[in-house]
Design brief:
This protein is α+β, with helices and mostly antiparallel strands. It is 45% helix and 13% strand. The two termini are 41 Å apart.
Length: 382
């Protein structure tokens, strides 16, 4: 597919850029910002026809919006999990009642979501999860277990939880995806996880008999693995292009620093800077090709994850190399009462250490490619 932008796309770009320039400084309240986006019709533009989202947009216009948002001074999104993960999953697998109940509040920026997948003993190996949902006498589910690395759970109104509903089931059998309200004191506990960067957007979530209604099972009981895999495919769609805009901005900052402090005179540094630039271009064209359908396939999401995870981690290492000893200066001591502040390069280095782990580790992605694309024999399972 030719991903050249049309005149209509460029007009859409100008509209998006102008709106973001006028509203991106709306303030630090992320929930209020989601409502601002919703009122202006910028949430749910990729959901297609059906009346549940706001304006509709072509695939290229979705790319334009993602790129312009990343280029703007707009705050980080806290509603992207509901918009980009839950909503497409409901469009594909949800009932009409589920779509009518959950999509409009997401489009309005009124309800925030988090994702209950990973567990302490089942991070990248999602099929090994142990959280259980048992039907009670009144027909509702009672959920017990623990989820970890749950982004924005401390802000979320709802969580889509992958749990075992099949008694005695193992691996990817007997799983269901349940939509669970987070406002259940005594049944759901959220504990923030302090990261190396000092941030606390990740959380542990403990379910102790939390309630979920039977009509809030997506795709039907026992279809959790199929629905979960479909959702992970949405996770690596248009948003990857916006991610790459952010990567380009980070690379540009590293290049400017290298020129200003003379590090660019080192031939090894120059070679690494050029390699980072070239690989980023390759990632962009791979993402566009995949969105256009030409490169889509069983291994495409895994290839993309391997490409950007390693690239971003190497950029973090290059950022501190370019800075030299200066990268280690500053108030790095941390305490609960006085979290440290990092500059952009320090944050990039520390945060990117996790890029090859979260969202499916590099080892898991290579296994998927080996088995599903190359047809190699299945490796041993724990």
């Amino acid at each position: 597919m030719d991903f050249g932008f049309t005149a209509e796309d460029e007009a859409f770009r100008r509209e998006a850029r102008a709106w973001l320039a006028a509203h991106a400084g709306a303030g630090p309240d992320r929930r209020a910002w989601e409502r601002t986006l919703g009122r202006a019709g910028w949430i749910g533009i990729g959901w297609g026809e059906g009346g549940y989202g706001n304006r509709t947009a072509t695939l290229t216009q979705q790319v334009v919006w993602a790129e312009e948002y990343a280029r703007s001074a707009a705050p980080p999104r806290s509603g992207h999990i509901g918009e980009n993960l839950l909503a497409p999953t409901l469009v594909a697998h949800g009932t009409d009642a589920q779509k009518a109940r959950f999509l409009p509040p997401v489009a309005a920026g009124e309800e925030l979501w988090c994702q209950g997948y990973s567990e302490p003993e089942a991070g990248s190996d999602l099929a090994g999860l142990r959280t259980r949902a048992v039907r009670a006498g009144d027909g509702t589910y009672r959920i017990s277990g623990q989820k970890i690395w749950t982004s924005f759970a401390h802000e979320a109104d709802w969580c889509f939880v992958l749990a075992r509903t099949g008694p005695g089931s193992r691996r990817h059998h007997g799983l269901s995806l349940l939509l669970v309200p987070m406002d259940q004191p005594g049944r759901i506990e959220v504990r923030p996880i302090r990261q190396a960067t000092g941030a606390g957007d990740f959380n542990e979530v403990f379910f102790d008999g939390a309630h979920a209604r039977p009509e809030h099972v997506v795709g039907g009981e026992g279809a959790g693995w199929r629905v979960a895999m479909s959702l992970l495919g949405f996770e690596r769609g248009v948003s990857t292009l916006a991610q790459q805009i952010g990567f380009a901005q980070e690379l540009g900052r590293v290049v400017r620093t290298a020129v200003e402090n003379g590090a660019a005179a080192d031939p090894v540094v120059r070679e690494r800077l050029v390699r980072q630039w070239a690989e980023l271009r390759v990632m962009r064209w791979h993402a566009l090709r995949t969105l256009g359908g030409a490169g889509a396939g069983a291994g495409a999401p895994s290839v993309a994850k391997l490409l950007w995870g390693g690239w971003h981690q190497r950029l973090g290492e290059l950022a501190v190399l370019v800075r030299g000893a200066e990268a280690g200066t500053g108030p790095l001591a941390w305490s609960e009462s006085a979290p440290y502040e990092l500059d952009a390069d320090q944050h990039l280095f520390l945060f990117s250490r996790a890029d090859t782990i979260y969202g499916g580790s590099d080892q898991i992605q290579r296994t998927i490619i080996a088995e599903r694309v190359l047809g190699l024999p299945r490796g041993p399972r724990g």
